[in-house]
Amino acid sequence: RGLGDVYKRQVRDPAGNTVVELGELNTDLTLLDALRGRLSLGRTVASALNVDLRFADDGGNNLAAALAGEAPAEQATGGGFAVPVTGNMALVNGRVSISAPGIDTIVLEGLSGEVSTAERDGPIHVSFSGQSRQGDLRGSIELNGRVDDLFSDGELTPAAATARVNAGIEDLPVLSLIH
User: Fold this and answer.
1) Cα 5 to the chain's mean position, in Å?
2) Number of C-alpha atoms within 13 angstroms, CB side, residue 38?
3) What are phi and psi of 64, to 5 degrees?
4) 127 CB-contact burial (10 Å; exposed 0-12 / middle 13-18 / buried 19+)
5) What pTM was computed for the model?
6) Which of 147, 144, 150 is nearest to 166 (CA)?
7) What is the pLDDT of residues 36-75, one digit of tens each?
């Protein structure tokens, strides 16, 4: 039996504002497998993931401020790091808002998608869709495809990776954040 459900988790910035909120996470990963280093996620679903990203005039953002106190991830020696993760990870009903000085807020909503891999070094299959809006502009995006050779012997090897992705974009109203 998996670790089950996790409900309502938040990441807050130093001012106490919510930057990331996860409504629910359900996974088939078992605690025993995780402790043994076998990260077979089975079916893992994140629902109602909301991200409110706010950039300041100086280029800083609230997510970086929220994570400033976190310890950096430990890096392995050699060219990459071990990633023995398999399974199917899904996002259901995600939302991201991006605010910056001088532009209308960008909102990506109705975000859903899946990333899956059946083998440790096997291909990664990706599908993703959602809608965007910025001011009066509306649009949609859909991605489907796979990434091959991203891992070799459990190590990340991005230089060897090949991606085959089909993208369908209609009236995507995302104006540049670069001034």
Assistant:
1) 19
2) 11
3) -60, -40
4) middle
5) 0.74
6) 144
7) 877 788 889 999 999 999 999 998 999 999 998 665 555 4
